[in-house]
Amino acid sequence: MKRDPDTIPGENASMETSTTDLFKQALDLDERDRATLAGLLIESLEAEPDEELEAAWRAEIERRVAALESGEVKTVPWEDVKARLLQGEPDRKNR
Model pTM greater than 0.70? Predict the structure, then answer.
């Protein structure tokens, strides 16, 4: 979804135009670069990382990668998942 760069929420008349200019420049980036920039900006707003939480996420990621690599779980193409969701089909784990 593209925003009108002339109507940035929270920007007021006293604010320098640098925010608007940056936003317009960001809109010229390709989708991947815009996503990277958005992620970096969001990260810049977050508090200091919680090391315990980070360790838990690393362990979960490693567990999931191992399950994929061992064949314990299989991937499902997005098109299949989307079709099931649109048809209101329940999650297979709950069957």
Answer: no
